[in-house]
Amino acid sequence: MSFEERLSTTLVSILGLTVGCASPTLEEMCDGGRAPEEGYAVHLGYVEVEPGTECPPMESALLNSDDCAHTYWQGIVCEPAGKEESLVYMTSVAGGHYTSASNVSPRATRDVVDLCWYEGVYFNDPDPSFICGRPVLHDGAPVVAPVVARPSGWNGAPGAGVANLDPTERERLAAYWLDAAVLEHASVAAFSRMSLDLLRLGAPPELLVATHRAALDEVEHARLCFSLASAYRGIPSSPGPLVLPEAAGSTQADGAEALLREGWMGETLAAVDAATRLALARDPAVRAALEVVVRDESEHAALAWRTLRWLLQVDPSAELRARLADVMAEEAERWTREVPAAEVSVAERAHGLLDPARRGVALARAWREVVAPSWEALA
Questions:
Q1: What total of structural domains would you count in the chain?
Q2: Does residue 152 sit within a domain?
C-alpha cells in the first residue's frame, strides 16, 4: 500500500466512513446501515429550547444524550423525533429527570423548557493543541507574525456563529484559531524557502510547481483561520509583518531532515488533526474551513513524500538514511506518548476545539497506520 493510500484510509476512517465496497457513512446508519467502527450507536438525544420556540434544524442541533450509562458525543442527527413542552429538570440523589411543570410547586424556582427530540448517531468518547501545516522554524520553534487588530483581506471569509457560546468558550476558541492562523500564515514562508532549496538541488519542475501551489493553499488556510478567530474575538484580526531570521547555510542533509520532520510528518499529522476536529465540528463555517485544510494538508503531505523520495534517489548514502532514521526515532516518541485529558465543552467541540487526549489518540494512530509503515517500506 502506498503512503497516499494509507493516509486516505486513515482519514476516511477518522471522518466516520468505512473503506470498502459498501462504504456506509454515518448518514447510512440512520437508515439501518452498519456502524463504521466499534463504539457507534443510534439513539435519542434532545435539545432544550425556550417554551413555545421552534426546534433547531437538524444540521445545527447539538444534542444531549438520553443515556446515563455512557458519555456519548454526537456524530450526526438522523431525524426529528418529536417535542415535549413545559418541562422542568428535577434532581435527586439518584440523578435527574425532566417532569411536567404542572407537577412542580409554583413556589419552586425552576426554568421551564421545551425538549426537542432527535434520533442521532453517537460515538463513545474513549477518554488536541494544534498542528497547523508547516511553519518556518528557527532553533526548533515556529517563527510567526504578530497579530494586529485591523480589517483586511485576511479576515474577510465567513465567520463562525457565536450566539450560543459563553465568554470563556469564545476566549478559548479565539486563542486556538488565532494560533492556527499565525502558523498557517508562517507556512507560506516555509514553502517559499522549500522552493529555493529545491532550485538549489536541481529539482524537477513538477515538484516546484506543486510547492508553489501549496504556498498559495496556506494563504487561504490563514485567511480562513483569521476569519474564525476574528468572529470569536469580536474584533478583526490580521497578521503583521513576518520577520524572518537570516537563513543559515544548509546542506542537502539538513534539507532532507527538514523535509522529513516539518514537511512529511508535519503535514501528515496536520491532516489527521484537522480530520479529527472535522469529525466533531458542527458550525458550518468551521466545517468549511476544516474541509479545506484536510484536503490541502493531505496533498501537501503527499508532495513532501514525493520530494523526500526524490532526495533519497539523489543522495542514497547510508549516512543520510541513518540521520533520517534518528529523526524518525525521536519523532516516534513525541507523537505516540500518552497525553492527559482536559475538559472541552460540547459547544467548543462543535467549533473545532479538541481535548489533548483525543488528539493524542488520533496522532498516535496516524503514526502507527501511516507514517511508520510508509517509512519502513521506503527504508
A1: 2
A2: yes
Same domain, 166 and 242: yes
- Global pTM? 0.70
pLDDT at 27: 65
Whether 217 contacts 300, CB under 8 Å: yes
Higher pLDDT: 130 or 83? It is: 83
* 248: containing domain: 137-378
Q: Quickly count: other Cβ atoms within 10 Å of residue 35's Cβ.
A: 18
Q: What is the pLDDT of residue 135?
A: 62
Q: How many residues in total does the chain contain?
A: 379
Q: Is residue 281 part of a domain?
A: yes
User: How far apart, in whole angstroms, are the C-alpha atoms of residue 244 and residue 46?
Assistant: 51
Residues 112 and 146 in one domain: no
State how far the Cα of 359 lies from the Cα of 355, in Å rounded to an integer: 6
Grid coordinates standing for 325?
Answer: 532514521
Span 285-305, average pLDDT: 93
Locate cell 448517531: which residue? 121
SS3 50: coil
Max CA distance (Å), the chain: 83
Place of cell 476569519: 227
Q: At what angle do helices 266-280 and 284-314 cross, to 10 degrees?
A: 160
Choose the final residue of a domain: 124, 157, 184: 124
> Could you tell me if 346 and 275 lie in one domain?
yes
What type of residue is 347? A
- In the chain, the amino acid numbered 299 is E
DSSP 267: H
Kindly state the DSSP code that residue 248 receives in the 8-state scheme.
P
pLDDT tens string 138-191: 666 677 888 898 999 998 888 889 988 999 999 999 999 999 999 999 999 989
**pLDDT digits 0-9 by tens, 323-342:** 999 999 988 887 777 777 77
Q: Could you tell me if residue 5 is inside a domain?
A: no
Residue 372 phi, psi (nearest 5): -60, -50
| Among the ranges given (185-194, 231-240, 269-278, 328-337), the one the predictor scored with the smallest mean pLDDT | 328-337
Q: Are residues 99 and 152 in the same domain?
A: no
Residue type present at position 328: M
- Closest Cα to residue 180, out of 139, 224, 235, 244? 224
Q: Would 6 be classed as within a structural domain?
A: no
